[in-house]
Structures are given as structure tokens and as C-alpha cells.
Design goal:
Bound molecules: ligand C2E, magnesium ion
Strand content: 15-25%
Strand order of the largest sheet: 8-9-11-12-13-14-15-16
Largest sheet: 8 strands, mixed, barrel
Low-confidence stretches: none
Helix content: 40-55%
Shape: elongated
Structural class: alpha/beta
Number of helices: 18
């Protein structure tokens, strides 16, 4: 009984892997050896990709089976001398001796590869994958605390790079983390200090060159660092929840500006998945429309599929509320997620925006053109507008037009412009469209 109790205290009940406590103990032993004989030891921190989604969509029983499956793959790939542990949730770790970083590199590659093949549980193909952060003693440190911190930072980097990969620790990562922390602190005050503004990018009808509307894009002019890209600060705003007040500011500002434009011109506003999880999104939208007197049918809300990933039913209910108000809803960045098609069936979007990665690789990557054409057809069959994003050249425009997309957006037509320049852009496209009409006539 005593032996059993001791085992239970040091192992995880689900996978029977050593737990965090035992892992720490072994790590300290390992580090003492590294200090004594100068050999190397790597710490690999693993975190499953999409584990929460698997749990939410397929239930905890399947989530548990996935964890057990991963634990078995880890045991299979690791050496007898390596130590595999479950640190908690979907986090695992491996302690590995041997020549470093080669051994860790090899092991990480194998793990990423093996875990990327989805297992089949009860007829469900369970897509997951793993991201791995690696720190090596003695180069990255000789203290357990320090080494874990390095491995965690590397893991964070692997996730940020798009998951399903591994990263070794580099000192730049520490600097990046502290700049992220700073962005976080500075974001707090940015809204009140009036450091945000919106720019507007034209969306153009491809059959006649007419401007249909603008997409509002957020800009942050940080007085200490200069302009910061939304791709850098929106993730931080999402993590901290600040995207909720910021998103409200964006919507109100965009509606107030657009209310001054000619009545045929629409405005599109991006919504973050985090806003869907906050309560009162539909009420916030209603009150922004009321406060600015902006007509709902001139408003378009752009959502990405990551909004739908989290809680399908609740999100779709909100989308229907938007629809009932007369607002149009677009699916943004179409094609880069993994189940876009099923979402098109769950909600009748008004518009599909084809991600600019497809447009940017037209003529380079085989298949991009076929994909664009297929999505355009899909739009025709589903009665949805299709907008190609990121058109930069005349050649791309020709391909897009031939493919049958309805609208285009991109530097070729116009870069995002300041609010004050919107009227000039409207005039310019009006004139161009008129000229094109006379030419045809
Ligand atoms: P998005 O919604 O897909 O916006 C389009 C992005 O593509 C914009 O980048 C735009 O400037 C850029 N773009 C447009 N045409 C071209 C082109 O021809 N070539 C290239 N290379 N890029 C082009 P931006 O403004 O940096 O925004 C990036 C992303 O940040 C947006 O992607 C959106 O996901 C997010 N974002 C921007 N503003 C907001 C906002 O107000 N709220 C939320 N939640 N997200 C926002
Ligand atoms: Mg967008
Ligand atoms: Mg987009």
C-alpha cells in the first residue's frame, strides 16, 4: 500500500506518467550531474495544439484519450534514459541527456511528425499536433527555474510561429517577451490617451471598378515607439481582454466617420473572437449604431473562423442577431483555417474574403489559382459575395477577375487611407468607373 501511495503521489493518474513534482526532482538530479561532469541535458516542454477545441467539440472523454495517446507516443519516441512527464493539462515535458542540441533536435522533429498524424477515436479523426520549446543545460542555465523559463519562452515562440514546430531558446526571446510585456502595459493607457486611429481601405467591384465601401483598420501610434502594427498588438489586446473596449471604440469611430460618407458606401469592421466571448456584444453593436445614427445595412462585420471555433452555437446565435439588425457579416481570411467549409454551412455569410496568402502566391504556388476559382464558384453557388484580399499587381487582378471573384481589395487599388482622404478616394474611383463606362459605350 505504501509503495502504491508513493507511486500515486508522483504520477499522473490518467497517463501514469511522472507528474510535475517527480519531474522537478529528476531535473534537479540531472542538473547536479551536468554541473559535475560537464555533459549536457535538454528540457523539452510540449503543449498540444488545439487541445481545448478537441475537448469543447468532442467532449472530455475523447480529450482524455488524446492525452493518453500522446503519452504513449512520447514513451515510444523517448530513450530509456530520457524522462517523460505530464506537467498538467495538455502540457508534457521530456528530460533528455546525450549530445545536445542534436539529440533534442532529432527527438523534437520526430515527436512533431508522429503527433501530427491524427488518431481515430470512435469514428472521429482527432486533429491535434504539438508545439515544443527546448532549453539546454548548461548553456541556457544550470538552475531548474531558469531552464523551465527558457523552455517556456521557446514554446511560446513555437506557438506564435504557427504551431506544430519546435524552437530552441535564444536570448532574443527574453527581449521579445519583455517588449511584449511593455506593449501590454502601454496598451492599457493608449485608448484613453487617444493613441489609436482608424485607416480605411477601399473595396472595389471587379466588374465595373465601382467602390463599394471601406474596411476600417486599426492603427496605434505609440508616442514612445512610433507606429505598432495590429498584428503585433491585437494578440496582446486579446490576451489581456483590452480588445473589448478597444473593439467598441473601433466600431463607434468607424460608424461615426462612415455616417458622413455618401450613403452607398459601406464600412467593414473587424471583430475579434474574444469580443464574441465577452457578454453583450450584440447590445454593444446596437448601441454603437444608435449613438452614431449609422444605418445598419451599411455596416459589415468581419469575423474569422477562430471566432466560430470556440463556441459554435453561441457565436452563430450572435451572428443571427446581427443579421436580424440588418448588418452584413463576412468571413475574413477564408482558407487559412481548417474547417472553413463547414462554417459556410452553419451560417449564411454575406461575403467570403479570400485570404491574401492565396492572392500573393498566384502564379507561384500551383493550386492558388484553382483555389481562388473554386472559392469564387462557391460564392456564386451560395449567393455570397467573394472578395479577394491583398491584390497588389495588375496580373493578380486579371487572374482574380477571370476566376470570377466579385470584389477586390489591396494595394493595387489603394493602400489604407486616412479618414480625411476617404472622400478623395471615393471621387477617384467614381471618376475611374465613369471613364470605364464611357469607354465601353
Ligand atoms: P485583415 O482584416 O485581413 O486586414 C487586411 C490586412 O491586409 C490589413 O493589414 C491591410 O493593410 C493588409 N493589406 C491590404 N491590402 C494589402 C496588399 O495588397 N498587400 C499586403 N501585403 N497587405 C495588404 P493590417 O491593417 O496590418 O491589419 C492586419 C490584421 O489586423 C487584420 O487583417 C485584422 O485581422 C487585424 N485588425 C486590424 N484592425 C483591426 C480591428 O480594428 N479589430 C480587430 N479585431 N482586428 C483588426
Ligand atoms: Mg478584415
Ligand atoms: Mg483578411
Amino acid at each position: 500500500v505504501e509503495a502504491k501511495m508513493a507511486h500515486m503521489a508522483q504520477h499522473d493518474a490518467l497517463t501514469d506518467l511522472p507528474n510535475r513534482m517527480l519531474f522537478r526532482e529528476k531535473m534537479n538530479e540531472g542538473l547536479a550531474r551536468v554541473a559535475a561532469d560537464g555533459t549536457a541535458m535538454a528540457v523539452l516542454c510540449l503543449d498540444l495544439d488545439n487541445f481545448k477545441t478537441v475537448n469543447d467539440r468532442l467532449g472530455h472523454a475523447i480529450g482524455d484519450r488524446l492525452l493518453v495517446w500522446v503519452a504513449d507516443r512520447l514513451r515510444e519516441c523517448a530513450d530509456d534514459n530520457d524522462m517523460v512527464a505530464r506537467l498538467g493539462g495538455d502540457e508534457f515535458a521530456v528530460l533528455q541527456r546525450g549530445p545536445q542540441p542534436e539529440s533534442a533536435e532529432q527527438l523534437a522533429r520526430r515527436l512533431v511528425e508522429i503527433i501530427s498524424h491524427p488518431p481515430l477515436f470512435d469514428g472521429h479523426i482527432v486533429h491535434s499536433g504539438v508545439s515544443i520549446g527546448i532549453a539546454v543545460a548548461p548553456v541556457d542555465g544550470l538552475e531548474a527555474e531558469q531552464l523551465m523559463k527558457c523552455a517556456d519562452l521557446s514554446l511560446y515562440q513555437a506557438k506564435a510561429k504557427g504551431r506544430g514546430g519546435h524552437e530552441f531558446f535564444r536570448t532574443e526571446l527574453e527581449e521579445q517577451a519583455s517588449s511584449r510585456h511593455q506593449i501590454e502595459m502601454e496598451l492599457l493607457g493608449a485608448l484613453e490617451a487617444g493613441e489609436f486611429h482608424l485607416v480605411y481601405q477601399p473595396q472595389i467591384r471587379l466588374d465595373n471598378g465601382q467602390l463599394t465601401g471601406f474596411e476600417a483598420l486599426l492603427r496605434w501610434n505609440n508616442p514612445r515607439r512610433g507606429p505598432i502594427s495590429p498584428t503585433d498588438f491585437i494578440p496582446v489586446a486579446e490576451e489581456t481582454g483590452l480588445i473589448v473596449p478597444i473593439g467598441e471604440w473601433v466600431l463607434r469611430t468607424a460608424c461615426a466617420e462612415a455616417a458622413k460618407w455618401p450613403s452607398y458606401v459601406t464600412v467593414a469592421v473587424n471583430l475579434s473572437p474574444v469580443q464574441f466571448r465577452s457578454r453583450g456584444l450584440a447590445a454593444m453593436v446596437t448601441s454603437a449604431l444608435a449613438a452614431t445614427g449609422f444605418a445598419p445595412h451599411r455596416l459589415e462585420l468581419e469575423v474569422t473562423e477562430s471566432a466560430l471555433l470556440q463556441d459554435d452555437a453561441a457565436t452563430i446565435a450572435i451572428l443571427h442577431q446581427f443579421r436580424a439588425l440588418g448588418i452584413r457579416v463576412s468571413m475574413d481570411d477564408f482558407g487559412i483555417g481548417y474547417s472553413s467549409l463547414s462554417y459556410l454551412r452553419k451560417f449564411p455569410f454575406d461575403k467570403i474574403k479570400i485570404d491574401r496568402s492565396f492572392v500573393g502566391t498566384l502564379g507561384e504556388t500551383v493550386g492558388s489559382e484553382a483555389i481562388v476559382r473554386t472559392v469564387a464558384n462557391l460564392g456564386i453557388n451560395l449567393g455570397m459575395t467573394t472578395t479577394a484580399e491583398g491584390i497588389e499587381t495588375q496580373e493578380q487582378l486579371e487572374v482574380i477577375r477571370r476566376a470570377g471573384c466579385t470584389e477586390g481589395q489591396g494595394y493595387y487599388f489603394s493602400r489604407p487611407c486616412a479618414a480625411a482622404d476617404v472622400f478623395r478616394a471615393i471621387d477617384r474611383f467614381d471618376l475611374a468607373a465613369q471613364a470605364a463606362r464611357t469607354e465601353v459605350a
